[in-house]
């Protein structure tokens, strides 16, 4: 529970020297052992409070009862086939989530393991789509210190109050010394690195820093795919006696949960190159999932001696027990050198837990310093989805598919980690050293990237994709690219030809990438959410972003006639309609079976197609990739034409159909809406700009004619003098102030296009949102609530109208930045930091949820949309190609004739309302 301070005062994050003495920082400052000035920090003794989960109100429960019954039936049906339903609100983890997360391990897409800020390894996501939240408590680092035979210290380097630790004495890990209190030990996180500083614990005369490094390196498409992490221990002896220090890494042959009980697991010692040695743990997974091999290793040199214990058990039946292993380390600080000759162990028995240990020992002279380095790798070369498709992970392109590639992974990691850090520093330093940026922003900007590792990402080698020539779905491609639309009404149906959907196009040569909407919403690359999150990929891994866009472009031109029941209303329809942008790339057979989401019929959603066109143009303008623009142009045309069916009255503006037909899939919309209407206007302008760039001037002119007509309707129906109404209906929420109402303008400004509306109206709207949706919610300390009535009360029409969406708040802040409202922008976004990341918040760090309520109840932890904070960075530092693009009039870009332009201007002046936030406004074409 947060204190009242959350709502009454604003506090900076802890400075390094506020938690660790300045003298200790100086001592550790060799070999990068000292943590950076800007980092997220916690004491290891900090309490990891339980998180409060979201609950629907009684009225909402009644309203959703039929949906709930249909969803429950669907979940049971999927379970009968051994599959996980994409959305399952009924199944709860046995361990409730707590505020204990930290920086996850490894690169992207090769399975992930998270590590809590107090040292526990948890949140196992080795198998695609499955997350085991519980920690494996045998996986620990420990330290053993002896001085002159009189002083001895031994402790696990984690507090003894961790969840999952048994209290009874036995031959398991409870027999180890859990002496660390944690009040003199601190955790410092700046993704992809973390530092844990033990300032005199457990030995008062020993300063220890553990630096955790993972190869997340922007624009490096090889090493960023590696499933490996390095742990660099920096030791400083402040005493007058020489100290023998042994560091111990223990690891269970497990991938979380009860997988270690299934039997058949084998441990094997190895001696590699360059002094690297350790143990391989071959894990035989259950349910016919691909096997996993772990490697734990340390690097031996003239100062460091490495020994191993290939096998020990957690039960009394084991030949070497956890208690016996610990006793050996306390007495000797190392294991028998002959253990390297032990060979592979016998497969473990059903119900047994087998573990391994690597010890690295060194002598540290009085006032001396030393470095000891460990590495962890997990090799799971195959990705197998539930409906049969199997692929090789991206890293196998460089390391092969042998289980023993884990040895090469740890060897290379121990040799290359300093180069990784140089690249990470080069990337992060310009932002961290920018004194104009708030400290909290710098910290949160980098740490929100945790999701690209811990968000269930899958990155495969495109050469391993299975081409199934016999399973061709009805797919299409526009026949006439130069003139894709037959008339200016966009109502014709262009002739289509088929293609093989399993012929995978990897023009970016980076493989194929998937990331989940969230660990509770199991759908790959959910597109309405990717709209917000994609700024991170565009900025850091643009080739991956273009690859995902190509996947969706191909999906636009595909049809899947499989019958699907939509759970919201119980109606039936087909899985994928030609021309409709897919909601997601699937769940159990991604790329092949699209649209795992089945609550609503997303072929009738009004935001997906405009979002596709907007993302395409943003990526095209940011990268300047002409081949990309040409490749996706047919899909853009098809997506735009598809939208014409939703212009029910022929006035140029699309209308919503009285159900939640957009990303707010519980919030009903009727008629013209601020959210979808603004996206449609922006898409028309973006399509015109793309067409002009590709030489399709006629198409561009038609888009801008439609834009001018639709814009006048939009403003006439929704502009009320200070903001745009939620929709043009007559419901109680129709006049609500929606935080996300300028989403289309956000993309327009982000892409270097002229504004959709008069600048005064844009700023007036943003100020209204700031004054109401932000500042009237706990004084601006929680972010922007989605809906607010003009009387200053939160819109409680549905659960989503009363929620604060973290990613939407970041995107709103980015829009403010793009329009010169820096104070409002950073105040708005800081609410997410205060509530989610600060010492006084609710504990959502490294598991930022989709949403929370004013009362601090979360919904959907570890969610994709908060990556939208990188839209703020793109607003602060736009891509060079956008900055250097010539500033042109939209109508010039579309080459509209002077006579047509005059007619449009005259028509718009007649219909545009005269009331405005800053006096009378006229439609301004010279923006």
Automatic annotation (TrEMBL):
Residues 85-107 are annotated as: Disordered. The keyword Hydrolase applies. GO terms for molecular function: glucosylceramidase activity. Its EC number is 3.2.1.45. Residues 102-420 form the Glycosyl-hydrolase family 116 N-terminal domain. Residues 511-872 form the Glycosyl-hydrolase family 116 catalytic region domain. It is an enzyme of class 3 (hydrolase). It catalyses: a beta-D-glucosyl-(1<->1')-N-acylsphing-4-enine + H2O = an N-acylsphing-4-enine + D-glucose. It comes from the Eukaryota. Keywords: Glycosidase, Hydrolase, Lipid metabolism, Membrane. GO terms for biological process: lipid metabolic process. Belongs to the non-lysosomal glucosylceramidase family. Non-lysosomal glucosylceramidase that catalyzes the hydrolysis of glucosylceramide (GlcCer) to free glucose and ceramide. This is Non-lysosomal glucosylceramidase. It comes from Urochloa decumbens.
